[in-house]
Amino acid sequence: MSINKPSGPEEEYFAREEAARRQREALENAKKLADAEREAAQKLHYMKCPKCGLDLKEINFKGISIDKCFHCGGMWFDDKEFETLVGHEQTNVFSSIVNVFRAKKVT
Ligand SMILES: [Zn+2]
After folding, report:
1. CA 76 centroid distance within chain
2. Residue 88: which residues within 8 A CB-CB, separation 6 or more?
3. Domain boundaries, the chain
4. Which of 10-19, 40-49, 72-81 has the lowest mean pLDDT?
5. How many C-beta atoms lie closer than 10 Å to residue 69's C-beta?
6. Which one, of 88, 42, 106, lies nearest residue 97 by Cα?
7. Which of 35, 63, 58 is nearest to 47 (CA)?
8. pLDDT-based confidence at 2, cuts 50/70/90?
9. pLDDT per residue over 20-63, tens digit each?
């Protein structure tokens, strides 16, 4: 151990600061990785059918756009599109489904 090296409380202080800095860096790196993975997944799956994996085609019906798979027949609605198409009445079974399963916005 060098004579000029800080010791005792001072050394502990610097060690704690260094550990805190490295922990922040690790969290930032994890977030960057998560963001990159999400972007890669979005690129890979964008406009692909969630059931069969083939291309979705955008079609317009009653003023709203629907993403449709012409392979398996599935249809994909963006948030509020389905509600716009089937109406807002609370007694409507489709509206009930939409209201029950609507995703909460992540901030
Ligand atoms: Zn499909």
Report:
1. 17
2. 95
3. 1-46, 57-101
4. 72-81
5. 20
6. 88
7. 58
8. low
9. 999 999 999 999 999 999 999 999 999 999 999 999 999 988 78
Distance CA 48, CA 69 (A): 8
Q: What is the pTM of this model?
A: 0.55
The enclosing H or E element of 95 equals helix 93-101
Number of neighbours of residue 9 by Cβ within 10 angstroms: 8
How far does residue 49's CA lie from ligand 1's centre (Å)? Answer: 5
The CA 15 to ligand 1 mean position distance, Å, reads: 56
CA of 12 to the centre of ligand 1 (A): 60
